[in-house]
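*** Query protein ***
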Amino acid sequence: MALNPLIVVILSLLLFESKRELQVFMKLVLVLGFLAALNGIKQKHLGLFPGEQLFVETSPTHMIWGKLRVFSFFSDAGQFGAAQAVLAVGAAVLALGSSRPLKKIVLFLLCGMFLYGMLISGTRGALFALFVSGFFAVFLSKNYKIMIVGIVAGALCFGLLKFTSIGNGNYEIRRIRSALDPKEASLNVRLENQKILRAYLADKPFGEGLGVIGFWGHEYNSDKFLSTIEPDSYWVKIWAMYGIVGFVLWFCMIMYLLGRAGGTLFNLKDEELKGQLVSLLAMAAGLFVCSYGNEVMNAMPSSFLFNTALSWSFLTLRIQNKENAAS
C-alpha cells in the first residue's frame, strides 16, 4: 500500500524527461488496455483457458447466475471494469485533441472497445469511474462547449439508466443499472459492514494497523475482529487500518495531488502535452473514486497507472520549459 506507490513515483520522476517518452507511455497504456479488452472479449464469446476456468471455479464472485463476470488479465472483474472505463475516457480525450483523422478514428474505436470491456466485466462501480473520469476531463478542458455537451450527455445517460428500463433485456446493462438502485442487496451489505466498523473504530482514531482486514487479514490476522469483515472498498480498508486520522490524511493528500496536477495543467502552453495530461488525470480521478466500491487503485496494474499519471503532472511543466529553452 505504500511501497509500490513510493517506488513508482520516484522512478517516474527520475526516468521520464521528454515529451516523446510521455507519448510512448500513452501508447503503451492504450495497447495494453486493447490487449486486455481483446482477452476479455475472448473470455466472453470463446470461453476460458484452463487456468482462467480454475480461477472462476474458486472465486464465487465471477460467475453469477450462470453469467461470467469478465476479468481478462486482471486480478478480478472489478479492477478490469474500472480500468476499461477510465481508458475509454482517456482514449476519447486524446481523440478529441488530435488533428489527424486516422488517429481520431483509431482512438474512438479503442474508446468503443473499452466501453464494451467495461460492460462485459459486470462491474457496477465502473459506471462511477466512467462518470467521474468524464466529468473531470470536461472540467479540465476549460472548453465550455465540450463542458455543456458532456454534462448533457452524462445527465441523459444517468437518466436512461436510473429512470427507464431501456436495455433491461441485456444482462450486462441490467447489472450496470443496478448500481443506481439504493435498495440493491450488495450495497446494503456494504453499508451494514460500515456501520459495524464505525462502532468498532469509534475509540481507535489510528485504526487497528496494517494487514488486519481484507486478504491479508484472512491470511495472517484471522484472530483479529476486523479480519471477519469484508471492506469491499479501498477507502474503507484505509479507514480500518489507519483510523479516521490516517484516512483524512490520505484523502487530503490525494486531493492535494489532483489539485496540484490541475494547477500545472492550467500553466501549460503546449496543447499536445495538455491533452495528454488531461487524459492521464481523468483516468487517475476515475480510479480514485471507483476505489470506494472496490480495491482498484491499490492493485496492479491500476496502481501503476494511477501513480504514474500523478507523477506526470509534476513532469510536464518541466518538460515544456526544457524544450522551450532548447529551442
Notes: Strands lie at 63-64, 67-68.
